[in-house]
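It is worth pausing here to work through a concrete case rather than discussing structure prediction in the abstract. The textbook approach is simple: state the sequence, then state the predicted structure, then interpret. We follow exactly that order.
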Amino acid sequence: MEHVINKINHWVQSLHKEYKSMSETQVTNRPSPNKWSKKEILGHLCDSAINNTERFVKIQYEKQPYVIQPYDQEQWVVIQSYQKRPIDEILVLFQTLNKQIINILMNIPEEKLSYLCDIGNNQQKTLAWLIQDYLEHMEHHINNQILIRNNN
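Step two, the predicted structure:
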């Protein structure tokens, strides 16, 4: 768990600098009409943090297996208008939400990491798996979409 906490904290600290080194065009450009901009991807990571905060808390006290409720990621990004918001606001939101997740993770008793959740398709995973998956999802977007430099 310490590794996950350290990695999330790394991104909380470093993404602000990464975004500040990009031009407005780099941050707002959509690679194609149906793809998110780097600004919207960061907003999506905020939405992921919001939904996973609830999951990381509820799985610790609700009946097992805790059933993961999916959310419409596209609608969350559209309705919250991340593309039109200042990048600094989205960065602060990302930092605040992930600091809260770090706080939750630091306080999970070891025995609760094996609690089960139903992720759909007749699959059950542990809370530890769900936490690791959260980090992997975050790093997928950061490494493969946000940190990829374009010529704008």
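Step three, interpretation. The CA atoms of residues 9 and 99 lie 7 Å apart. Residues 38-58 form the longest helix (21 residues).
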